[in-house]
Amino acid sequence: MSKRLTLEELSVAARSCKGCDLYRDATQTVFGEGEDKASLMFVGEQPGDMEDRQGRPFVGPAGRLLDKVLAEARIPREQVYVTNAVKHFKFIQRGKRRLHQKPLIRQVMACRPWLEAEIKVIQPKVIVLLGATAAQAILGRSVRVTQERGKFFAVDSHQSFITIHPSAILRLRESRERETEYTRFAAEMKLVKRKLVQLKGR
């Protein structure tokens, strides 16, 4: 891929991607979106049902939770770039519902050139890795989020920060657990904000 490609050109090119088999059942490719020179980038696992239908990342329940946390951390959503490690929705049909399925490592690796191209264009200072799939896509190794969560890793010209995916909070059944995890996630985003300020001051 040419270094001169813009995000818009990458997005258009990704629409016809057949690098793995997920394109067959997905409605469309869901590419990243946001500020093209964002200092902060978020990488999730893959689009969900609503993202697949709308063609935009993080517009479903997990996206709304992320928006809320970003607002609390005083990180303007319009100043960040959001994307996923995998650009097509992987699911299993159950009646009328389409249930999320974790992508295979070969599917994550097939999509990796798109993610690398996004990073090359944006050149973020910090990339927040939301969950194990995103962490594996960037760090190139198996990551246990429970052990690595809340840590920064120097990768090339940016800092990668590992945390859970917002959907993991939404899946918790106990309200007290959800509140605890939400509070921790919000605190982590404030930590990311401080790291950004620190890096910009250098």
Task: Explain what this protein looks like in three dimensions.
There is one protein chain. The chain is built from eight helices and eight strands, in the order αββααβββαβααββαα. The strands form two sheets. The protein has a six-stranded mixed beta sheet, sandwiched between helices. A two-stranded antiparallel ribbon has the order 4-5. A hairpin with a 2-residue loop joins strand 4 and strand 5. The protein is globular and about 45 Å long.
CATH topology: Uracil-DNA Glycosylase, subunit E
Helix content: 40-55%
Number of helices: 8
Structure class:
alpha/beta
CATH-level-2 architecture: 3-Layer(aba) Sandwich
Q: What is the H/E order? A: HEEHHEEEHEHHEEHH
Query: Biggest β-sheet: count, sense, barrel?
Result: 6 strands, mixed
Distance between the termini: 31 Å
Portion of residues in beta strands equals: 15-25%
For the secondary structure, the number of strands is 8
- Order of strands across the main sheet: 1-3-2-6-8-7
Shape annotation: globular
Are there runs of 5+ residues with pLDDT below 50, and where?
Answer: none
Whole-number tally of structural domains: 1
CATH H level, superfamily name: Uracil-DNA glycosylase-like domain
Return Rg in Å.
16 Å
Write down the overall mean pLDDT. 93
CATH class: Alpha Beta
Write the layout of secondary structure elements.
Layout: H1 7-14, E1 33-34, E2 40-44, H2 49-54, H3 61-72, E3 80-84, E4 91-94, E5 97-100, H4 105-122, E6 126-130, H5 132-139, H6 145-148, E7 152-155, E8 158-163, H7 166-170, H8 175-200
Parallel strand pairs: 2-3, 2-6, 6-8
Antiparallel strand pairs: 1-3, 4-5, 7-8
